[in-house]
Amino acid sequence: MNKEELQQLIDQFDEQELKQHGIFNISQYGGGSDESFIKANKEGLELFALQLLKSARDIEDVLANTGQKIIPFDHEGGWMEENSNTFIQYIEPVASKQKLIARSDNKSSLTDKLMPYGCGLIALILAASVVTGLITILRWIF
Q: The whole model's pTM is what?
């Protein structure tokens, strides 16, 4: 999308109304960042999306400006809960595109095909050895 299309989307939101009713919180329920969740109402999600849309609109200007390397993220106005574990302060734009790596087909080799049979054979030999050992011990005792 170009800047004008993004601006049209941004203009559809009433930011002041969203800030009055919006609730948004990023928290962790466990020990690490892989255990994170967002708690928000509809207005909070719309306000978060609005901030992201504004950042998308401004990213080209920031990348072209050699002095400015970040896009401030507006979390003022009380819509971000105070007990949130994570506050996004700014967005650091990246100029490069993600390169998709072609997924290689997982070709199985002869070793991969024979592995289950080898493990089964080892388990069978181990079981036979245990049974033979138990029989030998019982014969010594009786």
A: 0.60
